Amino acid sequence: MSKQPRKQRKALYTAPLHKRHNKMSVHLSDALRQEFNRRAFPVRKGDEVLIVRGDFKGTTGKVEGVDLKHYRVMVDGASSNKQDGTKLYQPIHPSNLEIIDLYLDDERRNNALNRKV
Q1: Which residues of the chain have pLDDT under 50?
Q2: Is 71 domain-assigned?
Q3: Using CA atoms, how far apart are residues 47 and 77, in angstroms rounded to an integer?
């Protein structure tokens, strides 16, 4: 891995999907951190998150979508309505979030969460 910022940026922008998924990791709340013995976990649709920085700071909501191309997360609480009444989600970077409750209906996700790191 290079120290040069241009190579760091290039690696981020040209990363394949399986590496982008890991970059979309979000810090776990203190309770989840003790329960699962890990600091962060990749976010997915259905997780409950708390926004800790930005205009929507202090807002909690369900993750409605994850944009791997632009490294952004759409949260239900961070949205506004357009003139015609449709909902417009504000994209939020995962570093500004904290997972409060994990969506654990997926068997593969359970296995990933419980395996040794």
Answers
A1: none
A2: yes
A3: 13
Contacts of 17 (CB under 8 A, 6+ apart): 68
- How many domains would you assign to the chain? 1
Run of H or E including 10: helix 5-13
Residue 74 maps to which CATH number? 2.30.30.30
Q: DSSP 3-state assignment of 12?
A: helix
> Is 73 inside any structural domain?
yes
Q: Which residues, at least 6 apart from 84, have a Cβ–Cβ distance to it below 8 Å?
A: none
Could you tell me the residue range of the domain that residue 68 belongs to?
Answer: 5-112
Predicted model pTM: 0.89
Q: How far apart are CA 45 and CA 50, in angstroms?
A: 14
